[in-house]
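ugh finaly. both done.
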Amino acid sequence: MNTTDRLKELNNLFLRKTFPLRAATVSAYFTEHFDQISYSERSLSRDLKALKEKLAERYPSLEEKDGDLIRYSKSENRFYYIRDDISAFPSFSEKELDQIASIIDFNKHLFTGGNGNGIVNKLRAITLENNLIRHEDLANWPAIELINEGDRSGSEHVKFLVDAIAGKKIIEISHKGLTASSKMKSITCLPLLIKEYNNGWYTGWYLLFQEIADTQNGLSLDKLRLFALDRMDSMRLSKTQKKLRIHPNFQPADFFKQIMGLFRSTGAAEKIVFTISENSWIKEYVNKYPIHPSQKKQTENTFELILEINQELENFFLRYSTELQVIEPLFFRKNLREKLKKALQAYQ
């Protein structure tokens, strides 16, 4: 463990308010977690001096007012930070995390699909996890496990795109499809919306845009297209900028209004009627958590949706085929039946 890593770990131990920080306990911690054989009183003194210098750099007025920001308690036989909300390295205190969560919670209208709630919950989870450090004997597994989102491929384009969307700037993008035979294409377009979506394999970002032709003057939901950001090679502002007519009621998000998932089919929205098995466990869920905002109840066990029939919707009904049964339209019911027959044959 190098010096910087050791100081960061020592700083984290200070933030664990009930950790009895002294040479013996730190030595035991480093031995258990980092296989560091020895950590002496002299080593601790050296590291405390380095931490004091870092704290003084971050909180000069506080040090000038209160003196040393690290002190020793004889009664508790431990070193401690004089305040709970300071850190030698950039980090969020519990109070700061709670403030950020509250700000996001107040501005949830800036997020779609409940993403604001998700961020708030994760910040609250961080605060809860940080509070767990008051226990001297911690379980060696996490108490909370949320979706592991990881880095988004294409995230390097987000800053540029957000600025272009806000400024209604026409851009040029280079894009390559996922298939091996796909070739790089250059497209001039007006970016409209970045959409995050979990397609079952991974969570990715997609760009909703309208391709711009020389004669293009307005926008239409029917002409919008969707590309994955991780398939974009490069992008730049177009040399040709022109003002497009945008209806005051135009909302790019309406592109997804009558579909399940991301991609629209070539057909119009259909009325889909389905029933739920009498004793199905899913009945309570469908009533409490509608499949789609268009969901309506016809009878106790029969519901209807107004949606375009796309692959995502088909996959949904196939996934829950033992619980949900499509009644109409007949062509959709027949298509699902053929898929289920094919699946059954594969298991014979």
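ok and the 2nd:
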Amino acid sequence: MTANSPLYSPAADRNREPILQALRLILPPQGLALEIASGTGQHVAHFAAGLPGWVWQPSDAQADAFDSITGWCAQMGAGRVKPPILLNVMASPWPGDNSPFAQQFDAIYCANMLHISPWATCAALMQGAARHLTPAGLLLVYGPFLEAGQPTSPGNQDFDQSLRQRDPDWGIRQLDDVTREAHHVGLRLRQRLPMPANNLLLVFHRRPT
């Protein structure tokens, strides 16, 4: 990969616009957002270009993703994006090394991480969001989920099986289990938005005290 050829995810290319349209309805006109597990950078570049009032902080657990993230931002003309940083979701506080962020975030966005990482990352994501969101901040989680009483699509069934074959600690998570981890740290599911390809966008906020 060179600076002119960032990494490409077909799935991110397909879903970035539907997610952006949902974010335009959910988010206020301006704010500071943290993206967890930015990966190729296609999402943060598209969102920053489409939400001009927002400043984005991309992050990833692997520094070798950084060139791709900055490459996509350059291609999209997304100027309100901070340099990517290393962030392991299991760290406490974020981003790590006992050095917390200097300010809280109005939104934290995480896509397609929970099913390709150990279950412990779900609790870590919720705990980190509770620490680093502003009082009115939102946690936005995108990806496939299993739901009690709802039929699972054949595609998601096959996908879940393939994930567990690759790594027994991976797999599509039960929505009830995810919301339970959120409740433990004072976050509540405010919205469950159906998305293309049998995915969901989950919107969590702080429970009133």
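summary for the 2nd one i guess: Residues 10-206 form a domain with the Rossmann fold fold (CATH 3.40.50.150).
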